[in-house]
């Protein structure tokens, strides 16, 4: 699980470890947040915190090597890590006149290419997994057809993620890996803000129900946390 230090990623880690799964929790910060560290202490035999910056190739390879030392296969990769805007969720700062190459590239590198590079690094482990799956968290903002003024960088990065994962789904079929995209909803996190009506637990409980039901015929689909088709 990438981006497991807080919010949705932490909720994923809590759910999976408490139902008895072996969990690797990716965290960008050198020192894990207190809540994730507390979860690790409570489940030392099942949860390992993995230093991981999905925007950094060396960090991705080091994380895969650490996981590979512990296990020979992965059944599920959850690409959760992402950023909203350089300016933060309160003020996107993405309007004509303020657009900036460097800011845009930072968001694209983390939200679009990062998940693909993590998946690429983990393909060997996933190919040895049991009914392996790659699930990447997109957003309603990734829907081109619904865009009536979405934040420039974030929306475009999620649309790019959707396209990249569709390409990966086509290739991954030959290895028996299911690739799907999930819209977690508007979630009450540091990114989503206090006005969001979906809690991390509600979102994750729904997404895990969807993940559990995924089969190879679902590869390439874009679904909401409630299991409905999301518009491309």
Residues in helices, as a percent range = 40-55%
Cα radius of gyration in angstroms: 17 Å
| Sheet of most strands | 4 strands, parallel
Separation of termini? 24 Å
Extended strand count: 6
- Structural class computed from helices and strand pairing: alpha/beta
Helices and strands, in order, run as HEHEHEHEHEHE
Low-pLDDT segments, ≥5 res = none
Strand adjacency order, main sheet: 3-4-5-6
Mean pLDDT: 94
Coarse morphology: globular
Strand content: 5-15%
Number of H/I helices:
6
Describe the structure.
The protein is an alpha/beta fold and 232 residues long. It is 42% helix and 12% strand. It has helices spanning 7-18, 34-42, 57-70, 101-127, 152-172, 200-213, and strands at 23-27, 47-51, 76-79, 133-137, 178-183, 222-224. It has a 4-stranded parallel beta sheet, sandwiched between helices. Strands 1-2 form a two-stranded parallel sheet. The model has no long low-confidence stretch (mean pLDDT 94).
């Amino acid at each position: 699980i990438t981006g497991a230090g807080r919010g949705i990623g932490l909720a994923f880690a809590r759910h999976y470890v408490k139902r008895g799964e072996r969990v690797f929790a990716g965290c960008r910060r050198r020192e894990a947040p207190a809540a994730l560290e507390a979860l690790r202490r409570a489940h030392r035999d099942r949860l390992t915190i993995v230093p991981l910056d999905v925007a950094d190739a060396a960090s991705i390879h080091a994380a895969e090597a650490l996981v590979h030392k512990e296990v020979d296969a992965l059944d599920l990769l959850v690409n959760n890590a992402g950023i909203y805007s350089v300016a933060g969720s309160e003020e996107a700062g993405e309007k004509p006149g303020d657009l900036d190459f460097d800011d845009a590239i930072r968001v694209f590198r983390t939200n679009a290419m990062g998940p693909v590079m993590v998946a690429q690094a983990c393909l060997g482990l996933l190919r040895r997994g049991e009914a392996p799956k790659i699930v990447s968290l997109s957003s309603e903002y990734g829907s081109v057809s619904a865009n009536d003024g979405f934040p420039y960088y974030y929306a475009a990065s999620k649309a790019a993620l959707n396209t990249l994962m569709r390409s990966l789904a086509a290739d991954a079929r030959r290895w028996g890996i299911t690739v799907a995209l999930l819209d977690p909803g508007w979630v009450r996190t540091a990114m989503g803000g206090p006005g969001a009506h979906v809690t991390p637990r509600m979102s994750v409980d729904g997404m895990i129900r969807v993940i559990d039901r995924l089969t190879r015929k679902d590869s390439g689909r874009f679904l909401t946390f409630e299991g409905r088709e999301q518009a491309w």
